[in-house]
C-alpha cells in the first residue's frame, strides 16, 4: 500500500500458521498495524527484544503489540493511537475516530515548516472527503504533537533525510570505486 487513506490502511490481515497456533477460521474486528508484526515474530521465535545493542547503545522501543493472543481467539485492548510513516507522509489514528495525515512537501520539511495537514472524523466521514484541519485546529495541533512525540521516540525521520543519506552513500561508494580503480591502474602501469 502506497498511500495512507482509509482505502489503503483499512485492509484485512490474513494469517495462517499450520499446527494449531492460529484459531482456524477465526475472525475479529480488532485493529492491527504493520508495527505489530515484529513484536509478534519475536514472540513466536522466543526472542526478547534487547534494550541495548552490543551492550552499550540503547535501542529505540519497538512500536506495536504481540498479536499471538489475537491469533488464538482472544481480543486485544486497542492502543490509544495508531501511527504510520510512509515515504514522507505520516498519519495518526486517534481512538479510531480522528485521523490526522500529512501531505508530503519536501520544501516544507527541509525548512522545518509546518506540514500541510488533513484531519478527518472517520465516524462521520470514513471516505475522508471533508478536511477538518482548519475547523478543528486544536484537535489537529494535539494530534500533530502526539505524532511528533511518537516519531521522536521511535526514530521516524522525514523522507528527505532518508533520500539525502542514500545519495551520500551512493556518492561515497562512487568515490571509493574510483579510488580503487585508480589504484589498480597504478599497480598495472608500475609492473
Q: How are the strands of the largest sheet arranged?
A: 3-4-5-6
Spatial separation of the terminal alpha carbons: 56 Å
The quaternary structure here is single chain
- What spatial form do the alpha-carbon principal axes imply? extended
Helix run count:
6
What is the tally of beta strands?
6
Q: What is the H/E order?
A: HHEEHEEEHEHH
Task: Write a short abstract of this structure.
This protein has 191 residues and is α+β, with helices and mostly antiparallel strands. Helix content is 38%, strand content 15%.
What would you say this structure looks like, in words?
There is one protein chain. The protein is α+β, with helices and mostly antiparallel strands. It is built from 6 helices and 6 strands, in the order ααββαβββαβαα. It has a 4-stranded antiparallel β-sheet, with helices on one face. It has a two-stranded antiparallel sheet with strand order 1-2.
Short key terms for the protein model shown above:
about 190 residues, alpha+beta, 4-stranded antiparallel sheet, about 40% helix, extended
Secondary structure elements and pairings:
Elements: H1 6-9, H2 37-45, E1 52-53, E2 57-58, H3 68-71, E3 81-86, E4 89-94, E5 98-103, H4 106-110, E6 116-121, H5 137-154, H6 159-190
Antiparallel strand pairs: 1-2, 3-4, 4-5, 5-6
Amino acid at each position: 500500500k502506497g498511500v495512507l487513506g482509509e482505502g489503503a490502511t483499512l485492509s484485512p490481515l490474513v494469517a495462517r500458521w499450520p499446527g494449531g497456533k492460529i484459531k482456524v477460521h477465526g475472525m475479529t474486528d480488532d485493529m492491527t498495524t504493520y508495527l505489530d508484526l515484529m513484536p509478534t515474530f519475536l514472540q513466536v521465535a522466543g526472542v526478547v527484544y534487547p534494550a541495548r545493542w552490543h551492550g552499550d547503545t540503547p535501542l529505540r522501543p519497538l512500536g506495536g503489540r504481540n498479536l499471538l493472543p489475537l491469533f488464538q481467539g482472544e481480543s486485544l485492548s486497542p492502543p490509544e493511537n495508531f501511527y504510520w510513516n510512509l515515504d514522507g507522509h505520516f498519519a495518526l489514528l486517534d481512538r479510531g475516530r480522528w485521523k490526522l495525515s500529512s501531505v508530503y512537501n519536501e520544501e516544507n520539511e527541509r525548512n522545518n515548516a509546518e506540514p500541510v495537514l488533513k484531519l478527518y472524523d472517520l465516524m462521520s466521514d470514513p471516505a475522508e472527503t471533508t478536511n477538518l484541519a482548519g475547523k478543528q485546529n486544536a484537535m489537529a495541533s494535539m494530534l500533530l504533537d502526539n505524532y511528533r512525540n511518537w516519531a521522536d521516540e521511535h526514530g521516524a525521520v522525514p523522507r528527505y533525510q532518508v533520500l539525502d543519506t542514500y545519495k551520500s552513500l551512493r556518492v561515497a561508494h562512487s568515490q571509493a570505486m574510483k579510488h580503487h580503480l585508480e589504484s589498480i591502474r597504478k599497480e598495472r602501469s608500475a609492473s
